[in-house]
Amino acid sequence: MKIGVFGTGSVGSAIATALVANGHHVMMGSRSAGSERAVAWRDKTGTNAAEGSFADAASFGEIIFLCLNGAFVLDVLASIPAMDLHDKIIIDVTNPLDFSAGMPPRILPAFQTVSLGEQVQAAVPGAYVVKALNTLNYKLMVDARLVNEGDHNIFICGNDTVAKERVKDLLVENFHWRADNLLDLGDIRTAHCTEAIVPFWVLVMQSYHTPLFNFKVVH
User: Fold this and answer.
1) Are 182 and 153 in contact (CB under 8 A)?
2) What does the pLDDT look like over 76-118, one tens digit per residue?
């Protein structure tokens, strides 16, 4: 499968590298082709790894991962021709965090009433936005086995049932998640709740002194 990954940081690099390792063709996108980080990732990763602009990655990918600073996501999407994202699944891993007052972060004011996930879907109405993987550390995103032998939960939000099932399959097949641990919370409006978990997640991380933990719902 051809997959575009927006973002050259820890999250984007981890996801892109894991996908290439599983045989996918991946293009890492950044503001302009030739980004130093993206080129370094491509050269290190080798076959099936490519880099380009955000627009290049959008055109290339059948599925798109958003792995950006939440404050800039909408600006990036506005810069991409709508046709390049039409009918595509966008997996939104981002959080709209404000670190200006220190730790833990707060949710940016613009996203306190309507979530970033909802605004992403509104910005690309022709795409299928699925919020996922935004409530845990990037190492755990791509290898669920790092905590409790993979027995813990992540949350899925999105308007389209078929798109959510495809995302679940991708996470199970590539990142070692158990299908019954992927909790579908409903439509994209529920992203408001998963984004709000993240400041609490930071507090727990500070208490445990490690990012390698996750939440498990027991009933």
Assistant:
1) yes
2) 999 999 999 999 999 999 999 888 888 888 888 888 889 999 9
CA dist list (Å): 23 to 20, 70, 93, 130, 156: 5, 29, 21, 22, 24
Beta carbons of 37 and 7 less than 8 angstroms apart: no
Distance (Å, whole) CA 157 – CA 91:
10
Which among 76, 79, 70 has a CA at the least distance from the CA of 111?
Answer: 70
Question: Which CATH fold topology does 2-208 show?
Answer: Rossmann fold (3.40.50)
Q: Where are the domains of the chain?
A: 2-208
Edge-to-edge order in the sheet of strand 25-30: 49-53, 25-30, 2-6, 63-66, 89-92, 128-131, 154-158, 182-186
